[in-house]
Design goal:
This protein has helices at residues 14-29, 34-53, 69-88, 95-104, 124-130, 146-156, 163-170, 189-212, and strands at 118-120, 134-136. The protein is mainly α. Strands 1-2 form a two-stranded antiparallel ribbon. Helix 3 packs antiparallel against helix 4 (95-104), helix 4 packs parallel to helix 7 and helix 7 (163-170) runs parallel beside helix 8. The structure holds fe (ii) ion (2 copies).
């Protein structure tokens, strides 16, 4: 982002945002465990608006850096994860697990109960010249990986995960995250496929944004 070209974000229409809410509701409906479903509805009562409005990343050149970006990305990860598991591990994981880890792997990107993770950048210069549309919110705990914050929020709402679900969310950045190195080549199939679904979703979103700016 340095040749003087001004890059613009991919923007979602009000209609597209409404569709996200419908899709989200449908996906949550697939979770049949009563306790999990109760925890999720309390979580979305508190954080649903933030989940819908949050970007998936703070910089344009990463992925889905726009309001609605996190929800759209998370839904896409559920869809990709289902497709990947159907090929490599058919009938191994139930839909409740697929929706839980796919939809909530990046939950930590909403921030915590009181503070969003990303705040809009007030500097037009940084937006225009560096594509930096958001800053990390310094009111959050100074450093917590978003995958760890996802798990923190899930336990706060009493959502009990299986060991495989926990591990899949924990290390969904795969070997891009240095703290995941202890898991290298020891990942469960769910963790490996979630990582792949996440990467493919990011690549799709990044490509769409690049094409918009060609
Ligand atoms: Fe992530
Ligand atoms: Fe993600």
């Amino acid at each position: 982002m340095s040749d003087g070209k001004v890059f613009v974000p991919h923007k979602m229409s009000a209609n597209e945002i409404d569709n996200l809410v419908d899709k989200l509701t449908t996906l949550i409906g697939f979770i049949d465990d009563k306790d999990r479903s109760k925890g999720l509805s309390r979580l979305f009562d508190d954080l649903g608006q933030e989940f819908i409005e949050a970007p998936a990343s703070p910089k344009l050149e990463w992925h889905n850096c726009m309001p609605g970006g996190l929800a759209e990305h998370s839904i896409r990860v559920v869809e990709f994860l289902k497709e990947i598991l159907d090929v490599f591990h058919p009938e191994t994981y139930d839909i409740s697990t697929i929706v839980t880890v796919g939809l909530l792997h990046d939950l930590g990107k909403v921030g915590d109960i009181d503070n969003p993770a990303y705040v809009e950048n007030e500097s037009d210069w940084h937006k225009t010249n560096q594509g930096k549309y958001y800053n990390y919110n310094d009111k959050l705990l100074p450093w917590m990986l978003h995958s760890h914050r996802s798990l923190y929020l899930l336990q706060k709402y009493g959502i009990v995960l299986s060991a495989e679900e926990f591990q899949a969310i924990l290390i969904h950045d795969g070997q891009y995250g240095s703290s995941n190195s202890a898991y290298a080549q020891k990942e469960s199939p769910l963790a490996l496929c979630l990582h792949q679904a996440d990467m493919q979703a990011c690549a799709f979103e990044n490509k769409r944004w690049r094409e918009l700016n060609e």
